[in-house]
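Field reference: sequence -> structure
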Amino acid sequence: MKISTRMRNMEEIELRNNIHPSAILEGEIRMGSRNTIGPHVVLRGNISLGDDNVLKTGVCIENNVTVGHQNTFYPYVNIGSLGEMGLKGDRFVEEGGIVIGDENTVREYVCIHSPVYTYETRIESKVYIMNKGYVAHDCVIGEGVVLSAGVLLAGRVEVGKYANLGLGVTVHQRIHIGANAMVGMQAVITRDIIPYALVAGNPARILRFNRMAAERAEVEEKYISEMEGLFYTGHFKSHESYNPVLEEIRTFIDCHPDCLLKWK
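Structure field:
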């Protein structure tokens, strides 16, 4: 009896990985080694997994999704569904997809949608997304970002590296949150947030400079002290200094002139 190439490929995948018998794999599935595919997991479409990923009970990944290495997806995570467009009608970019890097943790009931306006919804590496989070179409999440439980990101939101969003934060569509920013719980973000800002409230307001993030980034103390003063004046453009943090903020402001600059 002739065995199809498709059957041989599936046999090779099963030999290299631990796949629960109740899992469903349909379509063009490519998988590295030592992946754990739990009970009732569904992989359907053009799906690529690297090595050492863990997909726990009920994870659903569909359409076009590429996943790197050493990621953990907790029960009932959904990745790849069509971007929600309300009365406009849900859309799908045939050549578009979701790209997820390495060493990410995605907790229970998180939903990550396929792109609508671009070719990619992207999650970089070492991101931690807590339970019941929502990452809408065309979002870009930078390296080391933490999204606490219940964070809601509307379409085309970009979150810079090592930003931290607290419990229940809601972010309006097309918003850019700068690197190393911290957003307090239940904040409502309707304008772009500059890097290293600590913001809170509804609508959000800048409270102060995020010293903790600067220390973690090993910024020199003299620059940190200077930035703490500038965050109370808001004179980011006129202040003369070679402070690397200030230069990063100025670049962000040039790219996003409608960003939030009001402090408490």
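Note: The helical segments are 5-16, 211-216, 221-233, 244-255.
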